[in-house]
Predict the structure.
Amino acid sequence: MSNDVVIIGGGIVGLATALNVLERKPGLKVCVLEKEPGVAAHQTGNNSGVIHSGLYYKPGSAKAKTCVEGAKRLISFCRRHGVPHDICGKVVVAASVAEIPALTELFRRGVANGVPGIVEIGPERLREIEPRAAGVKALWVPGTGIVDYAVVSRKYAELIERAGGRVKLGARVTGIRTAHDGRRVIETTVGPFETSRVVNCGGLHSDRIARMSGARPEAKIVPFRGEYYKLVPSAQDLVKGLIYPVPDPRFPFLGVHFTRLISGEIECGPNAVLALKREGYGKMSFSARDTADTFFYPGFWRLAAKHWRMGAGEVWRSLNKAAFVRALQKLLPDIRAEHLEYGGAGVRAQALLSNGALVDDFNIVRDDGVIHVLNAPSPAATASLCIGEQIAAMVLNEA
Ligand SMILES: Cc1cc2nc3c(=O)[nH]c(=O)nc-3n(C[C@H](O)[C@H](O)[C@H](O)COP(=O)(O)OP(=O)(O)OC[C@H]3O[C@@H](n4cnc5c(N)ncnc54)[C@H](O)[C@@H]3O)c2cc1C
């Protein structure tokens, strides 16, 4: 099958890229290859559904640049296409005086990044916004919202097909080779796809797909599972919107928090435990290949040596509900174990360098003519329309 552009991966980043290519160059033959029977089956469909406002990211980073603008574009996309969403706002709460300097730094970053409406508030205002939350100081971020990213992705897919593109489901990419005429042949479980341009948006498998095409990415994907509880219906009025802690700046995780979902349910979590399978959503999920890949990687052991104490705490919270409840009580003292029921999990594709450093920012590279998205962690769903635009410009050689 002959194409102009093949995009591997029907998560939100791949779909946003395809949509943007077709918007810029209508008539190009664009095909998204997705191995699962539906789009958004992995990170995109198992995330927290927050439209982030751009608070956390180092000013000047790709995350900072694309999140604020991406959120704006996403919200107007949702309005235009009738995708349910809610700009409910969020509080970031310093539970103790010791957390105030980090909260102040977040405020500074938020202002530098142009986050709309962000203000520092005291305990009284906090109680007006979130009556059950406790803290000595907080940030109120009124522009943060919620959405179901699987619904957004299905809308992107619908628009791609309406514009003449294809989203081929159930097509697992197994190899990438270069034909005599320099075009690429993407081998899949449903046959070969020929194309002049290729984009790898393979999420949890992006490093392996890069290697299929002959690239040697510096970082390896190490999967971290985030496990959630949710509030039982009778406890849902303990939380109005989104309540977040002050994150530990050493890690790209935001700490356990409360998130109102667009369905009305309240999600609590996540923690961050090493997953023994890249797409392993259960505590017992295991893949020998994925586990070996992690355990034979020196970067993993360097990370573990540095942060074993934090890792052990996360595992303990995974196994012990009481420990999870204690972490949540820092933000919401009234929460009890009986308010929580199991709420599912998501797996993050964390790019890790061989020196043990976590790759923090988005990483999109071109290697031998193929574009690879090698790190697209949160807030990539929020920023998808901006990231898609950036990749589309690379595909069309405009950047
Ligand atoms: C627990 C959790 C919470 C998060 N919360 C938020 C949030 O609130 N807000 C936010 O903005 N971001 C959030 N994120 C981050 C966000 O979900 C991701 O940044 C985003 O979904 C990445 O999209 P993607 O398209 O790169 O990856 P994915 O959604 O993982 O898509 C990759 C796709 O590639 C496919 N694929 C892989 N290998 C192959 C192959 N060989 N052949 C064909 N297809 C293949 C996969 O099946 C998959 O569908 C969260 C992430 C997690 C894990």
Q: What stands out?
A: The two ends are 28 Å apart (CA to CA). The longest strand covers residues 340-352.
